[in-house]
């Protein structure tokens, strides 16, 4: 890592981790405070949630950025902001003001638009504000692309104030073991292959083929042994009974499903090709 006047250059991934940690710390504290406000005496304060968030941001700012030139996440990763001309207290306060104002506007945008429409009575005010928001998002995107390229100025405010992030200690080299990743990729490819192949397998035909082999070698008796009036596929009393050209009985659903799945379906009892089926009428012996 290159060392500058006051520290070492911070890695991009470390800066992103620090920013994520800062946001998570804010969300956790906010969640706890919001849970406390759900009690009956404080429920009215929920209408001012955005304003309470700004107050919370001020408290976090006071004990992090103002005190040590570092955000909460940067403190954890032993990083800080530096500027060629130094960072003054006025700059820190202005930084907080712009950051919290942006947050407040984003969360109160509908209320703000409603007020503007009443004040200016201009039907195009919503469109104008919307375009300004789009331009700001585009600027943030361009800034992020530049950050990925150069590793400096994670957000627009950092670029505006010319604040760069440095590490106070020399970063240790990262050793990455790809064993887990290789296993995940291998398993992913195996599952993709299985799911691609499965639709092309004719399972009924495969099942019937193995059943014929098993019965041919005498491992099992026919399902219809001593059960001449049962379905020769499922072994149960046939529903809408059908008789085949080989004089064996089947459920309509059993035989029709197998014939649709396999044009050359063979009778599981005698092994003959089933060429036709017809309705079976039971004639009791008198």
UniProtKB/TrEMBL annotation:
PANTHER family: PEROXISOME BIOGENESIS FACTOR 2. Coiled coil: none annotated. Its EC number is 2.3.2.36. One of its GO terms (biological process) is protein import into peroxisome matrix. Keywords: Membrane, Metal-binding, Peroxisome, Protein transport, Transferase, Transmembrane, Transmembrane helix, Transport, Ubl conjugation pathway, Zinc, Zinc-finger. Pathway: Protein modification; protein ubiquitination. GO terms for molecular function: ubiquitin protein ligase activity; zinc ion binding. This is Peroxisome biogenesis factor 2.
């Amino acid at each position: 890592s290159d060392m500058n006047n006051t520290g070492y250059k911070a890695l991009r991934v470390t800066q992103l981790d620090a920013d994520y940690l800062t946001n998570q710390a804010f969300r956790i504290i906010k969640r706890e405070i919001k849970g406390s406000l759900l009690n009956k005496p404080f429920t009215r304060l929920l209408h001012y949630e955005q304003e309470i968030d700004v107050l919370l941001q001020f408290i976090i700012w006071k004990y992090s950025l103002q005190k040590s030139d570092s955000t909460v996440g940067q403190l954890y990763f032993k990083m800080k902001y530096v500027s060629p001309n130094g960072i003054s207290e006025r700059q820190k306060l202005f930084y907080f003001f712009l950051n919290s104002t942006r947050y407040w506007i984003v969360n109160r945008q509908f209320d703000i638009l409603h007020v503007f429409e009443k004040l200016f009575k201009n039907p195009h005010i919503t469109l104008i504000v919307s375009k300004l928001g789009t331009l700001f998002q585009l600027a943030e995107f361009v800034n992020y692309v530049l950050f990925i390229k150069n590793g400096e100025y994670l957000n627009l405010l950092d670029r505006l104030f010319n604040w760069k992030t440095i590490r106070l200690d020399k970063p240790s080299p990262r050793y990455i073991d790809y064993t887990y990743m290789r296993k995940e990729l291998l398993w992913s490819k195996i599952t993709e292959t299985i799911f691609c192949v499965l639709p092309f397998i004719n399972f009924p035909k495969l099942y019937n083929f193995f059943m014929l082999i098993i019965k041919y070698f005498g491992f099992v008796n026919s399902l219809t042994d001593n059960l001449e009036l049962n379905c020769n596929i499922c072994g149960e009393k046939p529903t809408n009974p059908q008789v085949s050209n080989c004089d064996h009985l089947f459920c309509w659903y059993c035989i029709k499903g197998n014939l649709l799945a396999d044009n050359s379906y063979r009778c599981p009892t005698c092994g003959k090709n089933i060429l036709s089926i017809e309705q079976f009428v039971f004639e009791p012996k008198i």
